[in-house]
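Appendix C: a fully annotated inverse folding record. The material below is reproduced so that readers can follow the format used throughout the book. The structure is listed first as tokens, followed by the designed sequence.
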């Protein structure tokens, strides 16, 4: 279901396929295009009409170079609009999760990749300094059911969000949201180790909510699902609601950055704001005293 405002705003739909919603613009004509109409350009994606004009303007030398190096599998993959980043994340996370199920090495893998605040404050904890665990935690899980549920959520969310945002924006959203979840755990529950991609997934969910609302879609269903999942983490033991909260807040900030810097001339601002957000998270976790860890 969509609102009348959503249906009447043609900027929310591909100009070549009016029934297909998208959040991606052609980087030349700035019209909305769906995954099928996207061809990867040097920066962003290009619609078929602009690509045709660009090819007409090529010099003979450029055409020869394009025949030799371009127009191959990369271009085909870009036009297909497949959520490649989602598939890669699924493959890596599932492979690590299945390795965790093997007796003898599963626990070792989990221990090497899980996150705990102790690995950020070696002077206080005696543990080695391993800050990369802020992100590696996204790829390990606490069992097959935990892995299966998170991968199902990633697959469902990625099918919609990645084609709307584009691959690099989507990957940045996933990783920065996951980082936000780990930072929240370090600040709010520094004594508890955690595993799982839930922080990143909550970032994806709230981003779908914000971007959908920006486009004028009916987002009531997404809001209900988000509320139920967050409440479940609050009242059920063994679930890191802190990671959920961190991913939720940071994912919302990333989504707001995307909707406010959508135009081509704002691309530099978009990249700068994403870098600044990640930097702020790292600074916060580095300077805020881990009170609970020392108590």
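Designed amino acids, in order:
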């Amino acid at each position: 279901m969509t609102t009348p405002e959503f249906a009447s705003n043609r900027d929310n739909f591909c100009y070549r396929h009016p029934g297909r919603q998208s959040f991606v613009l052609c980087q030349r004509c700035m019209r909305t295009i769906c995954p099928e109409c996207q061809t990867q350009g040097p920066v962003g994606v290009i619609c078929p009409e602009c690509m045709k004009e660009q090819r007409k303007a090529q010099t003979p030398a450029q055409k020869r170079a394009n025949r030799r190096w371009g127009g191959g599998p990369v271009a085909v993959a870009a036009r297909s609009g497949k959520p490649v980043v989602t598939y890669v994340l699924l493959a890596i996370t599932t492979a690590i999760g299945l390795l965790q199920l093997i007796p003898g090495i599963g626990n070792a893998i989990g221990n090497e990749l899980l996150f705990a605040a102790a690995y950020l404050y070696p002077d206080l904890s005696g543990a080695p300094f391993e800050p990369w665990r802020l992100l590696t935690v996204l790829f390990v899980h606490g069992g097959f059911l935990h892995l299966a549920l998170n991968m199902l959520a990633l697959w469902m969310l990625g099918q919609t969000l990645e084609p709307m945002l584009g691959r690099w924006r989507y990957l940045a959203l996933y990783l920065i949201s996951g980082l936000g979840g780990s930072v929240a755990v370090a600040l709010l529950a520094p004594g508890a180790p955690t595993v799982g991609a839930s922080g990143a997934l909550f970032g994806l969910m709230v981003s779908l909510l914000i971007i959908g609302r920006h486009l004028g879609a009916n987002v009531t269903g997404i809001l209900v699902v988000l509320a139920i999942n967050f409440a479940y983490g609050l009242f059920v033991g063994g679930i890191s609601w802190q990671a959920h909260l961190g991913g939720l807040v940071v994912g919302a900030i990333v989504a707001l950055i995307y909707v406010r810097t959508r135009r081509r001339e704002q691309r530099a601002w978009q990249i700068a704001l994403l870098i600044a957000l990640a930097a702020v998270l790292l600074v916060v976790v580095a300077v805020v005293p881990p009170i609970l860890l020392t108590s």
